[in-house]
Design a protein that fits this description.
288 residues; alpha+beta; Jelly Rolls; Arc Repressor Mutant, subunit A; six-stranded antiparallel β-sheet; globular; AraC family transcriptional regulator; RmlC-like_jellyroll; Homeodomain-like_sf; transcription; DNA-binding
Length: 288
């Protein structure tokens, strides 16, 4: 049985999917932001940094920017895969932390540092599980208050992560010097993240990263299972979704902002990936 998946709520640089359901999942990807994934139901495994870990009810994953991971939850007729995802731009949250230097140091470590542990098992009564419900309540606040409320709830989340979830592993991971090193494919994704808003050619990426165009394309496809062109299109569609949901900019302007695209090409690309036109998407997300 396939479940209908609601459109993600997007608060500018924050994307929140609450108790999303599907009958299975297998995706290999990375985000330019930080992702928190909590699993209510379902069993499978996650591949992270070349190692495999079991996941199931109560699993919490903390994934750093550009960190490739494979979440594999096979079909089970008796159990749906139910999870909450929170993905956000780490730079935006850092701005909220200026008055809290201790919390900021902790945050910068779990954002950029070498972590000894990123996968945890939480009990149902853990306060963090309840806090995810609080994020859901923020959705029902007046639109002009949601962004601020979301930021304040994020501060509470970080405090819980600092005092409970990461508490035991923190001292061990903080002894590992230096930031986490990016792999080749993560470096490619970072370059795309910085440049996808304008037109560019494969040769330009290859030259900037000191790789041949063939090696770059082959490396990306072998590591992610998708072509680099598909990744760029998906990133542009994701940015378009945020602009459609949070602004009243005309389609022509949005098309230009996400890659210097023509309106006709942008609309075709958007519908191919989302199944609806940009205007239909905007109407749906605003009704939600």
């Amino acid at each position: 049985m396939a479940y209908v998946v609601p459109i993600a709520y997007e608060f500018g640089s924050f994307i929140f999917n609450h108790k999303r359901k599907s009958d299975q999942s297998r995706y290999y990807h990375a985000h330019p932001g930080i992702e928190l994934l909590y699993i209510y139901e379902g069993e499978g495994e996650v591949m992270l940094d070349g190692s495999h870990y079991p996941i199931g009810q109560g699993t919490l994953l903390w994934l750093q920017p550009y960190q490739l991971h494979l979440v594999d939850v096979p079909f089970n007729a008796d159990i749906a895969y139910v999870r909450t995802n929170l993905t956000f731009d780490p730079h935006v949250l850092a701005a909220y932390l200026a008055p809290f230097p201790g919390l900021l140091r902790f945050y910068e470590h779990i954002w950029k540092g070498n972590l000894s542990k990123q996968i945890f098992t939480l009990q149902a009564e853990n306060p963090l599980v309840g806090l995810l419900e609080e994020f859901q309540l923020v959705l029902h606040e007046p639109p002009e208050e949601r962004e601020e409320s979301f930021g304040l709830t994020m501060l509470k989340l970080l405090r819980l992560l600092q005092r409970s979830v990461f508490k035991e592993s923190l001292s061990q991971s903080q002894t590992q010097s230096g930031p986490r090193a990016l792999k080749h494919v993560e470096t490619i994704m970072e370059w795309v993240e910085q440049h996808y808003r304008r037109p560019f050619r494969l040769d330009e990426i290859a030259e900037a990263l000191f790789l041949s165009p063939y090696h770059l394309s082959h490396l990306f496809k072998a590591s992610t299972g998708m072509t680099l062109s598909d990744h760029i299109r998906l990133r542009r569609v994701r940015e378009a979704c945020s602009l459609l949901a949070n602004t009243s900019k005309p389609i022509q302007e949005i098309a230009a902002e996400v890659g210097g695209l023509s309106s006709s090409y942008f609309c075709q690309m958007f519908k191919r990936h989302k199944g609806v036109t940009p205007e239909e998407y905007r109407k749906t997300v605003r009704k939600a």
